[in-house]
Amino acid sequence: MNSLPQELPITHIHAEIEAVITAANRIILGKEHVIRLALACLFARGHLLIEDLPGVGKTTLAHVLANTLGLGFQRIQFTSDLLPADILGVSVYNRETSTFSFHPGPIFNQVILADEINRATPRAQSALLEAMEERQVTVEGETRSLSEPFFVIATQNPSHQIGTFPLPESQLDRFMMRIVLGYPDAAAERELLTGADRRVLLRDLKPVITPKRLIEIQDLVDRIHVSAAILDYLQDLLEFSRKSGDFQNGLSPRAGLSVLHCARAWALLEGHAQVLPEDIQAILPGVIGHRLYDAHDLRASSADLALQFIRRVPIP
Length: 316
Known about the structure:
Blueprint: H1 10-25, H2 32-43, E1 48-51, H3 58-68, E2 73-77, H4 84-88, E3 89-94, E4 99-104, E5 111-115, H5 122-126, H6 129-134, E6 136-139, E7 142-145, E8 151-156, H7 169-172, E9 177-179, H8 186-194, H9 198-204, H10 211-221, H11 228-243, H12 253-269, H13 277-288, H14 302-312
Parallel strand pairs: 1-8, 1-9, 2-5, 5-8
Antiparallel strand pairs: 3-4, 6-7
């Protein structure tokens, strides 16, 4: 039932994905693992939160993903005076026809970069909730569908910086994965300092696959096989988060589904026809890090949290 279709052999799909990663690596230097995590999130039909200091390449990564996947791109700069209508759109009265016509906002695109999302007020942030969860928006009582595929890539500055508003837990949970880029290593930074301008390289970056092909990859992710033993392992991880007493709150069923979908996407990225325990372990920090808080150490990193799971929950 979960076998891969004959017309889309996994080796061919894997080669196309590797071509996307190779193209992205030319722009985002020394961050291949981060690029793979971002692609896993997008292939799993999730939304991505990128949290880090300004200037490390968050916005560039969003541009690279949109360009290499051939997707329409729209950036929304989140500021303290941003209104929901600035995101969703507004109906404007036409005096000549005595009717209202809807002017769609920037949300009606395939890739939305919500830049510095935590610099907007909670009211503006909440305008994204329905779009991220339902792939639709309701404006003035009328519901309108969004583009397919539809990805929200949000960037967030650390909460200690001036002028930031913490994202509500309900919105954080809408992001399938949170990743951190970090500083480049010495070799990558030297190439960045001496090489071509990233803006010029971005402008010349051509799509590697089409949006139609991307949807086929997303459909294929849903068909990656998951054995009963892997489901047992996943449920053991969820149970550990809820009953160990190490965390303020356990992982929700939505979080469990996010782990499953991301693990399937990671398996495809690695060329696996089925999910392996190491696929779950690879994506675990990104999926649980923004959903869990260590009851004893609130500063524990995503990697530290995931390591607790990996060490203390045995593989069936």
